[in-house]
Design brief:
154 residues; mainly alpha; Ferritin; TspO/MBR-related_sf; transmembrane; transmembrane helix; membrane
Amino acid sequence: MTATRSPWATALLFILLTLGGGLLIGSVSMPDAWFASLVKPSFQPPNWLFGPVWSVLYILIGIAGARLFMKASSSPAMKLWWMQLVLNFLWSPAFFALHMPGTALAIVALLWITLVALIRAAFPVDRPAALLLVPYLLWVSFATLLNGAIVMLN
């Protein structure tokens, strides 16, 4: 990406990266019979909820990434943004494709830590970008609890 790219084009590229990447990874690591056989906690949301929630979150993540990229492309906040994306994209294959909920729990715990660090690092660079990541942190907090419960119940 170049410095002359418009903010809208940059935002669109980041949204396509996050939303497209999330949809691609989700499509190749869908819940299967193994997942259906697991004992789930009482607070497990219905499966249909995850797609819409993640779609909205990926858009917010993409906008936050674009804002950080345009303000400080080589900042610690931007490095943490890339790190969270890698961890995010690793979780579904670890859990659903490899059937390794313990490994997935470690990944989501690292993701949570990375998100907290990212929000803290992003706040002085671009406050709206940091705030756009708060719903993501809340959902990852819930996902960590859910993943941990599944590990404990199985």
